[in-house]
């Protein structure tokens, strides 16, 4: 396949932007989480470092950077060092296939799509790479050679594997109704309005799949109500007990970037991606600059709402016990997902 | 050290179960507690408790302090509800002495006792929620505690360790705006209780985590000597405020809250409803309290005379000197007096040899007895249940170990 110079430059530039955006997820979400959690708890969050505390994440990063890099004596060295790296690499890899906006006409011959890569099996790629994220928690706990991290990673691996299945089942219904595995096609499928009134977002046309996927996504991210692997009260710090300084910061970054990625995925697959309800941002007449830029803004707003919901859930709900969590995954979400597929298939044939 | 080897011997290292040491330094342990748990996967097959990490020799200290000096030590036992400990102690000493404090002092002490009960329960509910993952109620709890702290600070200057009562009365009278301050302090409690109910009571996750967890049957609770909300949540309506009234509890109207569920959820409901009852009691006390009147017993052999008299009258100077240097003249004898502290029956057993310092002073700490059946509650359950059950028992290490 011939790649013109402009394609190569554009892809590299997009990759750089997406990489930066992925790394920026952490400071943005950490700040948002701490401020919002403060407001929910009837107090102010960080508000001293910089105006309204906006420079707090930078202060945290600098602090982590300067901490002593301890390598405990009994750990399995290679795995212990590699675990946080996988933790942060996986979500950024996944971010590569998320469509952030409608296309814009860069030059007369080249339309810039806001997606680093758009493989024909985009959904499969995402599901596959997200599965690799499980290694991060498993290896972190196992390599730490200590009981609390071991318990944390055992719980994490079982939890993440079971909720992967629920997630995949929810995604299958979406793929069935779209008819394609390409993420850009999924967004394009949602870019219409039913009867001109209700946007055909999959959260309206596949509400059960949306619910299942959202719950499974929160579980994949090890967030309350599913944060058993790392809950402080029971396991000291779970699988990242033995980490400190920058390595611990990398685990945190991996977690928040994964939250950012999952929010982006939920927006793409269920909330219409970059599309607006009644205003067509990708008109049939051709891509436009206004449409493209506004669509990025729309995407970001939706992403922020989903991330806010993550934070909201974390500070509101208690956490599940391990057996209740596994019961929910296997005995509730998987059957519901299968039922949803059956109903979608049936309606697809009938309608 | 003998304790270490004893615990180690009870643990079966030849079995295939993993031995997990929870504590003493652990984010969820309420204080310095150690549980040596044998785990089969997530299930605790055997739990051995080890206490004493916060033992400071409080009871031994009593033998070398006058009664009012040792009062400051009582603050440090259940440091979450310090005034309850203080008042319980001075009531025990006054029982041995045979003095009755004036009306006004008794009403004020009742109000303060109930405020410290509110303080303890509010904290426990917040901590229980936090241990189960709902982090927000804890911050709301502390906000309510702050308003209560303001009341305590206005009375005596201390927020956590008050040492406000004295044997025979109070250190000083309450401030002029005491009633307004208290009313302001409890105003938020009712809405706090309602807010917590909306957050937690019908929450599916909360119910899954607390119902049927940490079961302590009625028979076990009575056998182990558990008291307070732990006992009342197992269905036994034993409350010293009704069964052996002291202070002004026989003159106010309140209900004893019990629950039949014997589990963590039951204890949560008992504490929440006890908070509402405490607010009722405080409001009645504020209405019935005499506006003016003496605070202290009219006997300078027991309580310090006011400074003006110390400077002017010889007898007062001598009383002052004797009370500070030797302590008050106690009759030879012993007495046990218990009050219904937020955690249960807090009893003080005072043995006096006739001097100003006790011969022996033993504290019947409710936490010590409540903590004993903990292995019963968690064996066969999972670690998450152990944490939930621990939180519901309201173990305060200062009181447990003394």
**What's the order of the H and E elements of chain B?**
HEEEHHHHHEEHHHHHHHHEEEHHHH
How does the overall form of chain A come out from the CA principal axes?
globular
Mean pLDDT across every amino acid position of chain A: 86
- SS elements, strand count of chain B: 8
* Percent helix range of chain B: 40-55%
Number of strands of chain A: 4
The span between the termini of chain A is: 40 Å
Q: What is the CATH architecture annotation of the largest domain in chain B?
A: Orthogonal Bundle
- From the alpha carbons, calculate the radius of gyration of chain A and give it in angstroms: 21 Å
Measured by DSSP, the beta-strand proportion of chain B falls in: 5-15%
The CATH topology of the largest domain in chain B corresponds to: Cytochrome-c3 Hydrogenase, chain B
- Give the count of helical stretches of chain B: 18
Helix/strand layout:
The complex is a heterodimer of chains A (351) and B (402).
Chain A: H1 5-40, H2 56-66, H3 77-95, E1 104-105, E2 111-112, H4 122-143, H5 147-178, H6 183-189, E3 193-194, E4 198-199, H7 202-205, H8 207-220, H9 232-235, H10 245-270, H11 289-316, H12 322-350
Antiparallel strand pairs in A: 1-2, 3-4
Helix pairs in contact in A: 1-10, 1-11, 2-10, 3-4, 3-10, 4-5, 5-8, 5-12, 8-10, 8-12, 10-11
Chain B: H1 2-10, E1 18-22, E2 34-40, E3 43-50, H2 58-62, H3 67-75, H4 82-97, H5 103-131, H6 136-156, E4 165-166, E5 169-170, H7 178-201, H8 204-210, H9 218-224, H10 229-232, H11 240-243, H12 264-288, H13 307-312, H14 314-325, E6 332-341, E7 344-353, E8 358-364, H15 366-371, H16 374-378, H17 383-393, H18 397-401
Entry summary:
The complex is a heterodimer of chains A (about 350) and B (about 400). With about 350 residues, chain A is mostly helical.
How would you characterize this protein structure?
- The complex is a heterodimer of chains A (351) and B (402).
- Chain A is mainly α.
- Chain A has one domain (70-350).
- In chain A, 66% of the residues lie in helices and 2% in strands.
- Chain A has helices at 5-40, 56-66, 77-95, 122-143, 147-178, 183-189, 202-205, 207-220, 232-235, 245-270, 289-316, 322-350; strands spanning 104-105, 111-112, 193-194, 198-199.
- In chain A, α2 packs across α10 (245-270), α5 packs parallel to α12 (322-350) and α8 packs antiparallel against α10 (245-270).
- The model of chain A has no long low-confidence stretch (mean pLDDT 86).
- Chain B has 402 residues and is α+β, with helices and mostly antiparallel strands.
- Chain B folds into two domains: 2-50, no CATH class; 58-298 and 327-397, Cytochrome-c3 Hydrogenase, chain B (Orthogonal Bundle).
- Helices cover 51% and strands 13% of the residues of chain B.
- In chain B, the strands form three sheets. A three-stranded antiparallel sheet of chain B has the order 1-2-3.
- In chain B, α7 (178-201) packs antiparallel against α12 and α12 packs parallel to α17 (383-393).
- Mean pLDDT of chain B is 89; it is low at 1-5.
- Chains A and B meet through α5, α9 and α12 of A and β1, α5, α6, α8 and α17 of B.
